[in-house]
Amino acid sequence: MKIGTKAIHAGVEPDPGTGAIMTPIFQTSTYVQKAPGVHAGYAYGRTSNPTRTALQASIAALENAKYGICFSSGMAAIDAILKLLVPGDEVIASNDLYGGSYRLFIQVFERYGIKFHFENMQVAENIRPLINENTKLIWVETPTNPMLNIVDIDAVCSIAKEKGVKVCVDNTFASPYLQNPLDLGADMVMHSATKYLGGHSDTVHGAVVTSDEALREQLAFHQKASGAVPGPQDCFLILRGIKTLHVRMQRHCENGRAIAEFLRDHDRVAGVNWPGFESHPNHEIAKVQMRDYGGMMSFSLKDDTLDSAVDLMSKTKLFALAESLGGVESLIGHPASMTHASIPKEEREKTGLVDSLIRLSVGIEDAEDLIADLKAALS
Ligand SMILES: *Cc1c(COP(=O)(O)O)cnc(C)c1O
């Protein structure tokens, strides 16, 4: 089955009791048992909920995975993955990373004795010297946020397999429409479903998928034991969002290209980071592992000052100044003070995340209107 058909049909069945074509919102905390321990597979709402079960199957299908495990946010999903580790274990992570992931790694899990190495994974071989007997997890983000660098997932997974280390890919930026890391050798894929999967900026939600039964068991254990579970209403909203994922992504990609080309040709713009350009340093890898290039990009201005960037961000009208990404509406943001403020300035600047960098999440409005908005703000 192809992705559009899966987005609409995978994991969902008409409700057997009523025929309702849409998965009902099972707003219940408990389920009546026929006799102690005799029930229809559902005993308590933290452990399982039928709306969540449908969503987990849907996301798993989109990523060509056997299992999906959903959480109350993307961060809760990452938290559950890190709980697979024990003190003394080491993690190698991309150095150009979502700020919240960096904060969870350093400010929470480092205190529990987990060691983190941050490395530029655009050259996959860079991870080899960091791997030792304590290395248990490689954490990949691609495209990276906010520099839009591309990591060769297949190459990283080959090195990891040689050494018996698990790989998890944060696939939030790409969505399953653009790439499927499990097919390239990853063991787990994590999503902030708040972004493209939900797609409407109305829900916070997270997911992990895997085809490894042992990993599924441990992740489901942490889902139940720690209890960072999504509510049934939120599961319904993500399921509904997924039904149009492929249509939205197609437009995000078309608009992304139109806006990236407009910015590249504008005389006030210094450089645009967008993997669809042949001039992008990792374009060749992007071409192989992604189906298209998405609507996320970042750029800086020739008058490379914080003031001119702030000025531009306060002048756009359709591009709303806000955190987050992946919704139908276009957003503009300032990574240094917003999404990446929790990363120290010296660390940020090592990856090129300068104070004047501007990030766009291009929505699915009409490209002509979006370009007119940027043109007016830039003039
Ligand atoms: C937003 C985001 C997260 C965190 O997800 P939440 O749903 O906000 O908890 C993790 N990784 C990336 C790449 C993100 O953009």
- Largest sheet entry: 7 strands, mixed
Bound ions, cofactors and other small molecules, one mention each? pyridoxal-5'-phosphate
Number of domains: 2
Strand content: 15-25%
Tally of helical segments = 13
Q: What is the CATH topology assignment of the largest domain?
A: Aspartate Aminotransferase, domain 2
> Can you tell me the CATH class of the largest domain?
Alpha Beta
Mean pLDDT: 96
Dominant shape: globular
Distance between the termini: 47 Å
CATH hierarchy: architecture of the largest domain: 3-Layer(aba) Sandwich
The run of helices and strands is HHEHEHEEHEHEEHHHEHEHEEHEH
What's the total number of strands? 12
Question: What radius of gyration results from the CA coordinates?
Answer: 21 Å
Uncertain runs are none
Helix content: 25-40%
What does this structure look like?
- This protein has 379 residues and is an alpha/beta fold.
- It folds into 2 domains: 240 residues, Aspartate Aminotransferase, domain 2 (3-Layer(aba) Sandwich); 134 residues, Aspartate Aminotransferase, domain 1.
- Helices cover 35% and strands 15% of the residues.
- It is globular, with a radius of gyration of 21 Å.
- The model has no long low-confidence stretch (mean pLDDT 96).
- Bound molecules: pyridoxal-5'-phosphate.
- Pyridoxal-5'-phosphate binds next to helix 3 and helix 4.
